[in-house]
Design a protein that fits this description.
The structure is a homodimer.
Chain A lengths: L1 E9 L2 H19 L3 E6 L5 H7 L7 H5 L4 E6 L8 H4 L4 H7 L4 E7 L17 E7 L9 E4 L7 E9 H16 L5 E6 L7 H14 L5 E6 H10 L6 E4 L1 H14 L7 E5 L7 E5 L16 H14 L2 H15 L15 H11 L2
Parallel strand pairs in A: 1-2, 1-3, 3-12, 5-10, 8-9, 8-10
Antiparallel strand pairs in A: 4-5, 4-11, 6-7, 11-12
Bound molecules: 3-isopropylmalic acid (2 copies).
The site of one 3-isopropylmalic acid (IPM) has 3 residues of chain B, from loops.
Amino acid sequence: KQYRIAVIPGDGIGKEVMPEGLRVLEAAAKKHDVSVHFDHFDFSSYDYYEKHGQMMPDDWKEKIGKHDAIYFGAVGWPAKIPDHVSLWGSLIKFRREFDQYVNLRPVRLMPGVPSPLAGRKPGDIDFWVVRENTEGEYSSVGGRMFPDTDREFVTQQTVMTRTGVDRILKFAFELAQSRPKKHLTSATKSNGISITMPYWDERVEAMAKKFPGVKWDKYHIDILTANFVLHPDWFDVVVGSNLFGDILSDLGPACTGTIGIAPSGNINPEGDFPSVFEPVHGSAPDIAGQGIANPIGMIWSGAMMFEHLGEKEAGKSIVDAIERTLAERTLRTKDLGGNADTTACGKAVADMVD
Amino acid sequence: KQYRIAVIPGDGIGKEVMPEGLRVLEAAAKKHDVSVHFDHFDFSSYDYYEKHGQMMPDDWKEKIGKHDAIYFGAVGWPAKIPDHVSLWGSLIKFRREFDQYVNLRPVRLMPGVPSPLAGRKPGDIDFWVVRENTEGEYSSVGGRMFPDTDREFVTQQTVMTRTGVDRILKFAFELAQSRPKKHLTSATKSNGISITMPYWDERVEAMAKKFPGVKWDKYHIDILTANFVLHPDWFDVVVGSNLFGDILSDLGPACTGTIGIAPSGNINPEGDFPSVFEPVHGSAPDIAGQGIANPIGMIWSGAMMFEHLGEKEAGKSIVDAIERTLAERTLRTKDLGGNADTTACGKAVADMVD
Ligand SMILES: CC(C)[C@H](C(=O)O)[C@@H](O)C(=O)O
Ligand SMILES: CC(C)[C@H](C(=O)O)[C@@H](O)C(=O)O
């Protein structure tokens, strides 16, 4: 079968790292006999917005909804276009309308990337953050009353549905079950957020009964963030609500040295819609156009995409190539103390793929 | 004037660290000619709950509402009494009914306390987290619909009032203005939480206009937690909503080595009600009764209490004594690699006060 991938570079350094991501995917596809076809799209970018007054064409769903996956660079250019237009007009639209209810990110300390945590070595930190990606704290239900008076107030609801909570927990428990440690940690705050979070805990307990082989525990989000720093070796699979997962999946990569190389998947596990794979970093206007951006996040996201498509070997060959590349100082980009530019780093990974 | 302090040891190690807190307060009071009277209360504890079926007497407000401050150990014994009974029946009641709308915690790397962050030394990390303590995400507004069916869902509102937001921001800007760096950082998530958080940003901007001498910036909570780990030296005063402040004020102390020594104040700045000073650690059932708990969090909270009462010199003398004590391995408790027990550590600090 031939995979059809929608390619959306987006803004800023998204455009610079995308060619390297594609280069490595092509190298891995060749070695592992995977047939891929890439379709390129210019929407979901500031340039497109400037021309058309919207982030995406009206028929964006027809254009990319039948692809096997979407390979996405970065979107957003806060100085030119407000976040709620650019992000809610693309990224969050994908998540909602393609029902990508899993946001998946590895937290893994790689060779050549110094951890800000004292004494931690590659191998010490290796877990996954599973984030609910469609509901929870990111609802749009709420409003403002008594505007511009002393009585002014705003409210916004957190919404958790049984469907929404159970399916993300099921995904997380299944992932935990597939791993050697079989350990799941749930992020909660039921001692302070007294309605939604106890419900989350309740559903975790119910789901845990279906996975007797998985050991599980829960921490309140405050002490959990502390434990990411103090005991990152405690974790295997960490599951959280939209907001908690968002926090943990930036904090986790920071603990492994840099969010500059972290990948992510926005996944619809049933495959009813395409999933989006994108680096965690944004468009980084401050370094865009200089050719120095680190392409590893983009490349690693490609590896996750191949794994999601079922091409485990091709995916793994990319992750291995990333590790070997990062281990060589001269092949790393400037942000990691090396002197390679974006292209040189991307080529190095492509060459290492086997 | 004689200060009247309500003393509530609470549960678990709260009872063990309280005598050391009092010992040091008495030593500092003597040296600095401060007159203090302590009234002891046994409520807000599991023992009290077991006898009376509630955490506090009906007239708790009359009993402690006229004191100049409340010196609080720790409450909660999750195996025996659910959090929502113990915490909401005492700690959170104080915050709400005594309108302690500021939760204040220092984040400071102390000598003798190894930071989990590589290469950070005492002096490198020194900032305050200012947390809104009465509203926000900790509302009790919400509920459940369609229970026990597939359509089941729960909602909970975040509530931000103009009064509530403005007064915490004012406190934070004033604190920033009083410090050498005059720098304030606001925690937001307005790119994802689309109603309450943009409102928070709006009020920050309005308040900033009244403090032209203060430099300010804002970060989304996800990248802010990452920056606590990667760049803790960037911060001076960090202000956040109830939930964001809760997270940051556990993560911050974790970055400085341990939440075991962190102090906190739950403050009603106007002095209409007493403020509560308590260590950040909980009742720690796992080590309770062994006499090994670290009393520094309790002692440091006492220093904050003196400063709040206007006894700056007495407060500072305690913080200095803590630093000198922590610098000596033999005077530290086991959790910090020393061999002192709770009492020996407390006595050491009391002796150092000058
Ligand atoms: C015990 C809990 C309700 C409390 C909170 O979240 O406010 C605690 O974490 C704190 O920070 O004082
Ligand atoms: C850009 C923003 C809305 C987004 C989020 O909070 O979901 C981002 O932080 C992410 O994690 O993908």
